[in-house]
Inverse folding.
């Protein structure tokens, strides 16, 4: 779900907090100094993230060079926070790219207060397949947590195929059963 465009200028005065939120996720991923994040200051987000916020290790490895490049480009703003300005189109493009990379790594949409034209924050799965012969599940979770979205584009599901958008298991059911 990479968003290479700029963050909405509707963020206005909330841009410094948005910058800090995104840069903290970037810093955490590159320094790997913490386990998956279990608590976030999400007051600047619209919607709810599924916690713990954990990186997909394969996607993180694949996107490492993008993260390094973005850290190098955004470091000057981190050192001089007074330069974070909604009128800086280059900064907005960089933050839009960083958000897109983070969304791919975390498998969750990051939507900020003021971005009313975007789906709320939360887990998502986007899958496309011509033919499904086996099982294809968008989201398989132990408990419902936050906003969940599954988008699947399938041309043919063969007799042996099974397509599930979102599967939730919770403690109210017997182990291995699904609601």
């Amino acid at each position: 779900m990479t968003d290479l465009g700029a963050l909405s200028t509707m963020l206005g005065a909330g841009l410094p907090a948005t910058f800090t939120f995104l840069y903290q996720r970037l810093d955490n991923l590159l320094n790997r100094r913490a386990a998956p994040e279990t608590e976030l200051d999400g007051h600047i987000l619209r919607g709810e993230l599924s916690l713990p916020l954990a990186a997909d290790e394969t996607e993180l490895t694949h996107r490492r060079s993008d993260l390094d490049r973005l850290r190098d480009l955004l470091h000057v703003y981190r050192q001089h926070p007074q330069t974070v300005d909604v009128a800086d189109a280059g900064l907005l493009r960089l933050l839009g790219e960083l958000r897109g990379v983070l969304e791919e790594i975390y498998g969750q949409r990051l939507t900020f207060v003021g971005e009313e034209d975007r789906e709320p924050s939360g887990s998502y799965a986007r899958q496309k397949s011509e033919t499904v012969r086996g099982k294809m599940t968008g989201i398989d979770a132990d408990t419902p947590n936050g906003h969940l979205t599954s988008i699947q584009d399938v041309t043919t599901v063969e007799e042996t195929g099974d397509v599930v958008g979102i599967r939730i298991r919770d403690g109210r059911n017997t182990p291995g059963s699904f609601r």
In short: Residues 57-79 form the longest helix (23 residues). The chain is about 30% helix and 20% strand. Residues 24 and 77 are 13 Å apart (CA to CA).
